[in-house]
Known about the structure:
By secondary structure, the protein is of the alpha/beta class. The chain has helices at residues 4-12, 25-30, 37-48, 56-63, 70-74, 81-96, 100-110, 115-130, 163-166, 186-190, 193-205, 221-225, 230-244, 256-269, 277-286, 290-298, 320-325, 330-338, 360-363, 365-382, 392-404, 414-421; strands at residues 131-133, 140-142, 169-171, 178-182, 208-212, 250-253, 287-289, 312-316, 342-344, 386-389, 410-413. The protein has a five-stranded mixed sheet with strand order 3-5-4-6-7. A four-stranded parallel sheet has the order 9-8-10-11, with helices on both faces. The protein has a two-stranded antiparallel ribbon with strand order 1-2.
Amino acid sequence: MKTLPQVLDEARKCVKCGNCMAQCPVYLETLEEPFVARGKLGLIEAVGEGDSEFSKRFSKILSLCLLCGTCAENCPNGIQADEIIRQARSLFVEERGLSLSQKTIFRYLLDSEQLMPLLLKGGVSLQHLFLEKIPEESGLRLRFPVPFIDQRRLIPPLAQDFFLDLHSGWVRAEKEVKRVGLFVGCVSNYLFPRISRAALDIFLHHGVSIYIPGNQRCCGLPAFGSGDEQTPLSLAQKNIEAFADEDLEKIVAPCASCASMLKLNYPLLFDESDPMRPQALTFSSKVTDASQFLGQFLGQMTISGGQGRKAKRVTYHDPCHLRRKLGIFKEPRSFLKALPGLEYVEMREANRCCGQGGSFNIANYDLSLKILERKIQAIEHSDADVVATACSGCLLQIMDGLHQQGLKKEVRHLVEIVDQATLL
């Protein structure tokens, strides 16, 4: 964790030109100066120079940031404002501590080997008591008010069988040409096992043997983005150890947000003096997003199948963690354009943030929906039948947005579409 003087030095590099104002999704909806990058950096400077303090107001302003990186992408001076804001959140947590709800979720659920799976397994049998089926939609809605969850929200049902309960250890390809690890992620494990199943099917068909540690945990991104570095460090240690015993060429993560956390942020959690830092660097160097892995390894293979089927129009939403953090945006489009039975159409502003932002859309649901509305309008304008993305969080957010607008469109992960639309 950086010290306050170090964060202050980074914040001072911002010349307050205001270029971020035309780009920030939060500012475009609120039009309030403190909620744009330069406003937050100015506040961080004030705290660092002793003109302000780590107050609840300071925390609230910092929380109104998606950490989408749009400001950094468009900054003429290359200031990584989103990372500075995240570091300031960490300093606030160090100074004032986590809220009770954050501590409960991060420390006792995300970083628990048994408690979260146990609670969610219990939730499978009880969800019909608290949630009602939405007619003609593959989702649920709360029957009764629950703190922090808006009753309007579309809630996907928990899977009857979690992915890691069905698949763990080695899954060998008949004619092995490569060996990789699979990082499943929470959404794919508990809500949409079909995503990891699709990745598994594609890899096995092409001779890629898959190692799936049954003891892998959450990547830690929700806690990390909220300023908690203790929980992600603990999770990172456990995930690194889970994959350490096998000779793997790559560790593939279908969720772009998980891939970004594992690859870019895990090394930040370990000090130079930490004996586990070399392991963290080796682990992170092997991590790749599924779309990039498909592009590098499978992109040259012949794609067949789908002939004679009526073409579905498919559009694509760029996850912020994939495009801005990992720099991946060509591969998903290349796949979708090449797949038979699909007609690819580019939506306008495909790289605009959807407003999910991890815990942002829980704490700021109405504002999140306003930001999302622009994305839903772009999807509707594209006249696509299917919306593809490569991030679990974006997938959930877009599903909810389409539901709120009453639009009947499929939302699928990229690997699902590659698996379903071809006879690989």
